[in-house]
Each structure stands twice: as C-alpha cells, then as structure tokens.
Amino acid sequence: MTHQPTGAPRVAIVTGAARGIGAATARRLAADGCLVAALDLDESQAAATSAAIEADGGRAIAVGADVSDAAAVEAAVARVAAELGAPTILVNNAGILRDNLLFKMSDGDWDAVMQVHLRGAFLMTRAAQAHQVEAKWGRIVNLSSTSALGNRGQANYAAAKAGLQGFTKTLAIELGRYGVTANAVAPGFIATDMLRQTAERMGITFEQLLEGAAKEIPVGRVGQPEDVAAAVAFFCSEAASFVSGQVLYVAGGPKA
Ligand code: NAP
C-alpha cells in the first residue's frame, strides 16, 4: 500500500499512539510511506513510538496533547502542519475504559469516557478537516469496538463506541465531496494494556483473560495491535477512495 501517489508523502496523525493499537498503527502508516505524528497525553511516552519509526527509517514526531482539550488539539494540529506538513490522514484512536455495572457507574466514569472518545474525536476531526478540505484529499479512521453492539459493564464505552459509528457516517456524508473518506474500525479482543485493567477488574490474570477470550473467538486466537493497524492502513490508502462511511469489525469472527 502506498501513500505517495504524487511523490509527496501523506502526513498522518495517530492519537493514543504511545502504545497498543495506536503505536502499531503509527508504525504501519510510517512503513506505508506516511510522515507520522504520534500523539498522546504525554509527549515523552509518544516519543517511544516516533523513535521506533525513525529507527526503522521513517519520519515521525511525538506530540503531547489531551484530545479532549480544544486548545491543546488546535495547537497540536497546527504544530504537525508546521513540522511535517498538512495532516490529511487522521486516526482517532485515543481511548480509556471506566467500566462498571450501570448501578455502580459514577457521573465521572460516564463523562470521562465521553470526553476522550467522542469529544476527542470531534475536536481532532474538526481541526484536521480544515487541512483535508484544502488539500481536497483526506482519510479519517475512527476506532470503534465490538462493544458498540452492547457489553455488560460498559454502558459508557458502548455508547461512545456506537456514537463514533454515527459520527463516522456523518463525516462521510459531509466530507465526501472534498475527497475525504471516513471509516471506522471496530476491534474485538486485542491484547493491549487496556485489557490488563479488565483482567484486574475480573480478579484474574491477563494470561487467563487471553486464554478464555481465545476460546470464544472463531479464528482461535486473540487479536494483536497489528491486526487492527492493517485494517486502518487499508482505509487510509489511496486505493480505498471509494470506501466511506463503513464500519469494519476486526474481531476474528462475526461478533465479539
Ligand atoms: P491502550 O493500550 O490503553 O492505549 C490507549 C492510548 O490512548 C494510551 O497511550 C493513552 O495514554 C492514550 N490516551 C488516553 N486518553 C487520552 C487523551 N485524552 N488524549 C490523548 N491520548 C489519550 O488502548 P488500546 O487497547 O490500544 O486501544 C486503542 C483504541 O482501540 C481505543 O479507542 C480503544 O477503545 C479501542 N479498542 C481497543 C480494543 C482492545 O481490545 N484493546 C478493542 C476495541 C476497541 P495514557 O497511557 O497516558 O493513558
């Protein structure tokens, strides 16, 4: 997959790129030829990802920003444009969990998840689309989840991840005329630090969680961050210009 149709490399921002799916996606897009801004809450954490990309011969910068902070987002996108060029690829991946059964879920648990997933994706997309529309080319990929279909203990997260699907489809409708596509990737069980919290909450080890999950997944294994990165990379590619408003489940089977 190439991102250099006219010689000029595309510039991609990946949020939540310090680890997990975001780090794998940043590395994959760099391997595909993009200049990459690895954005995360803490710039020094994101620097591990940008350093890995540069060690592999790519070009990347680390950017520290909270995606739910409007001023920080504007400044981060402006910095990327100044240092790498207009960001025309945006992967909204930053995410948090605040799981609890509904009757135990606090206002803070609800708000924190909405802030990062929904407000974060909104702010990042609003800032990036100005560059995409001007370039008359863009790719937006939002990280949804199989939890969008409903998941016990995740009323907040499921609502946010379903919300991202509606957000994605609306972006596709509004921005298509400017050469911008918007799609969502909805992973199932992917072995990242995020699920270590889930294991802790369940009172089991991470290994036990992985083993139990693998038994329920048709392909017989849990997902790896690179499995998701490959799907994101397809949506970001030149070849995917006629694919927009779609949700691709990457879950080793038809459902979670
Ligand atoms: P992860 O390992 O927890 O990584 C998430 C990253 O996002 C972390 O580096 C985190 O930084 C960063 N982040 C959190 N809040 C942020 C904010 N306000 N601004 C900027 N960055 C922020 O998660 P993951 O498993 O790779 O998940 C990535 C995405 O895929 C998420 O949207 C998640 O909901 C989705 N997803 C994951 C799975 C799965 O099974 N793992 C399944 C379906 C969907 P800190 O470390 O500093 O908090």
From TrEMBL:
It is an enzyme of class 1 (oxidoreductase). PROSITE patterns: ADH_SHORT. Residues 10-188 form the Ketoreductase domain. Belongs to the short-chain dehydrogenases/reductases (SDR) family. One of its GO terms (biological process) is monocarboxylic acid metabolic process. The keyword Coiled coil does not apply. The keyword Disulfide bond does not apply. SUPFAM superfamilies: NAD(P)-binding Rossmann-fold domains. It holds the Pfam family adh_short_C2. One of its GO terms (molecular function) is 3-oxoacyl-[acyl-carrier-protein] reductase (NADPH) activity. Keywords: NADP, Oxidoreductase. NCBIfam families: PRK12826.1-2 (NF009466). Its EC number is 1.1.1.100. This is 3-oxoacyl-ACP reductase FabG. InterPro entries: KR_dom, NAD(P)-bd_dom_sf, Sc_DH/Rdtase_CS, SDR, SDR_fam. Signal peptide: none annotated.
